[in-house]
């Protein structure tokens, strides 16, 4: 059997790479259409200025196309949103037989041990907090980046590959009762730091 396709991580890595390729192509197509959309927006604005009595049906049709322009996000945003939905569901399946997690720290420890092992294949290497609502989760061999050459060469390119896992973490935390913003940083591949910023309760 080919070593490339062996191991439990292969199906996920293959699917993840295909999702990223699809989203990048989708973004390129969207950029190609941007000139056309800009012209349509200009024409629409001119029509609105020159004809304030425009028919309601025509106005509704044009408003739909304008809304569509603002709904579209970039590839990283869509990957993060997809990860969010998956993380939200996964945490229920993983935590269903565990006792209720009460404190924020208990939830973060669960995320770094049981959840991380089930989803990413190993526990995190380090969890730090400043006790002011910011946690840093460090994984020195994050499995998505293990196929990249080690070092600083592909640090910038790794960002899009981390949007999906950031979404998974944010979705899992939200389902555990923690509203947060999750970002990632890479200094040397494959080590990743996930920064979890807890939303302040008002």
Automatic annotation (TrEMBL):
Chief site of localization: Golgi
Domain of life per record: Eukaryota
Cellular component terms (Gene Ontology): cis-Golgi network; trans-Golgi network; TRAPP complex
Example GO biological process: endoplasmic reticulum to Golgi vesicle-mediated transport
Transmembrane regions: none
A Pfam family annotated for this UniProt entry: TRAPP
Cell compartments where the protein resides: Golgi apparatus, cis-Golgi network
Record CDD domains: TRAPPC6A_Trs33
Family per similarity comment: Belongs to the TRAPP small subunits family. BET3 subfamily.
Protein name: Trafficking protein particle complex subunit 6B
Protein's organism: Wuchereria bancrofti
């Amino acid at each position: 059997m080919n070593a490339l396709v062996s191991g439990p991580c292969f199906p996920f890595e293959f699917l993840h790479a295909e999702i990223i390729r699809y989203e990048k192509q989708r973004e390129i197509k969207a950029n190609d259409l941007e000139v056309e959309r800009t012209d349509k927006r200009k024409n629409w604005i001119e029509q609105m200025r020159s004809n304030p009595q425009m028919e309601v049906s025509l106005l509704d049709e044009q408003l739909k196309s304008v809304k569509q322009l603002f709904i579209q996000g970039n590839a990283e945003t869509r990957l993060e949103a997809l990860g969010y939905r998956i993380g939200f569901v996964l945490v229920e399946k993983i935590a269903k037989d565990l006792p209720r997690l009460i404190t924020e720290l208990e939830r973060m420890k669960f995320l770094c041990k049981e959840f991380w092992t089930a989803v990413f294949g190993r526990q995190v290497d380090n969890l730090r907090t400043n006790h002011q609502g910011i946690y840093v989760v460090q994984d020195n061999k994050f499995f998505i980046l293990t196929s990249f050459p080690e070092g600083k060469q592909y640090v910038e390119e790794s960002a899009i590959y981390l949007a999906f896992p950031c979404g998974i973490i944010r979705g899992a935390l939200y389902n555990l009762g923690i509203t947060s913003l999750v970002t990632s940083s890479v200094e040397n591949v494959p080590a990743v730091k996930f920064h979890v910023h807890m939303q302040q309760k008002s």
